[in-house]
Amino acid sequence: MEKKAQSFSADILVVIVIILFGALFLVINQISETNDENLEQKAREANLESKEVYEELKVQGVLDGQSNVDINKLISSDMADIKEELGIENEFAIVFEKDGKLVKIDPATNLNCKGSSKIIVNNEPCR
Predict the structure, then answer these.
(1) Mean of the pLDDT values across residues 98-113?
(2) Where do the structural domains in the chain lie, given as residue ranges?
């Protein structure tokens, strides 16, 4: 009789371990799905906000809609005002890129990017 009691408790132990692994798997899977959903949500928000900033820069004459940028207008633009006017909560910055490499907006003033000072480009905060 003692053998049956021992094997019964061993069976329960195996079932408990399987249930714990199953619960752990479900929790990890749920966390993973939540992170993916949050990431997708943030990507959608960033895409929408990028379009809003782009359109505002066109309205202000910084962009002409043909990929031409008036550098002087961009440099004098106040990104904090644009952020407030559009109701954007996230930080953003404008950078120039050519052939996959970042290019200075204004080499004379060593301006790498225009936007939030919380964003660092080439080891320097944006202005």
Answers:
(1) 89
(2) 2-125
